[in-house]
Amino acid sequence: MGTRRRTALWAAAAAACWPLVSCSNACPAIGWINSVSIEVEGDAGAVQRLELCADGSCSTRTADAKSGFTPVDPPFPSASAADPSSDAGVDAGAADADTWEFFLDMGAPDSVTVRAWAASGEILAEQDFPLDWKRVGGSERCGGPVSTPPLRLRI
Q: DSSP strand E in the chain: where?
């Protein structure tokens, strides 16, 4: 086989294979964490624990757990959740005394309910919030992390 013919065959093979390589619609390995910040306004020092509920799952965090991604184990009983141990997919931490962070794996619920509890077990505040998610990574086609503006819970 001549050099010209071999070159032409390689060029034809490359041209035939190029669309398979260059136009791939595959997404990279996917996994992310979405977050919700809650700013406690008023007497933030009275809050012993904060609870966030979304889509039937609740997560509770105590005030002395100031940071990190470790959920309370076992979770505190929830006055509203049918199964208080079902906080799968929701994790929490406190950035500082007034700001609490909740991490929802890849979930992005339309709304959440937030409760602030006193050490006595009294509910100091409870409020439902609609969420306005904005993409902060990834792509529309493949997905990626989203975040929502901070929620303000008044005590």
A: 35-41, 49-54, 57-62, 91-94, 99-103, 111-117, 123-130, 134-135, 146-147, 151-154
What is the residue type of 24?
A: S
Looking at the domain assignment, is residue 26 inside a domain?
no
Q: How far apart are CA 41 and CA 138, in angstroms?
A: 33
User: What is the distance between the alpha carbons of residues 134 and 110, in angstroms, rounded to a whole number?
Assistant: 12
Cα within 13 Å of Cα(127), Cβ side: 15
What is the separation of C-alpha 86 from the centre of its chain, rounded to a whole number of angstroms?
16
Task: Determine contact, residues 133/21, Cβ cutoff 8 Å.
Answer: no
Host domain of residue 77 = 35-154
Closest Cα partner for 137 from 106, 91, 100? Answer: 106
Beta-ladder partners of 83? none
Q: Does 45 fall in a domain?
A: yes
Each residue's pLDDT tens digit, 32-64: 888 889 999 999 989 999 999 988 888 888 877
Does residue 119 sit within a domain? yes
**pTM, entire model:** 0.64
Tokens of 109: 């619920």
